[in-house]
Amino acid sequence: LNVVRCFFLVLFALPACATTWPGDPEIGGLALEIQLPQGNADWPLHADLKPRILRTTEIAADYWGLPLAAVSGWRLVLTEGLLKCGSNTMANGCTTDEDHSITLSANYCICIESSALLHEIGHVAIGDPPHSDPRWHDRERMGQRWKEAHEGLSDCGGEPYYGQWEGHR
Ligand SMILES: [Zn+2]
Q: pTM, whole model, 2 decimals?
């Protein structure tokens, strides 16, 4: 519900919502923060990270029918370890409306394209923590986007889609 209110503000009073974090125009206005306390994940340190975040975010925003501009001002945190997200204490991604943050656990995937980013952008787009919207469970359409995101990648291509972006009911 907070997300819905936020979008109302994005549409009609941009500064009230979208300026929470100083966004990086190279990645659609997301504010990237890399925190790797365990040093187990190294892909967030690769030089091609930003264009790949942008491309994956574009694919995700398109899946959810969200204009790319709507992620502007959100913080994207790449960290390590399991996350506590609402009642889930073992999440690999979490989106929190109060602080406009998407947090991804980088050591549970080998590249941004395999991370929970597409899933989390869904929470930015529609909120819906219980994953009741059918798009959370559309394995065929999500699988197509997975394939599109991984196409031509040498470091994480060929990884099959088996529901990594789907929401738990
Ligand atoms: Zn979720």
A: 0.87
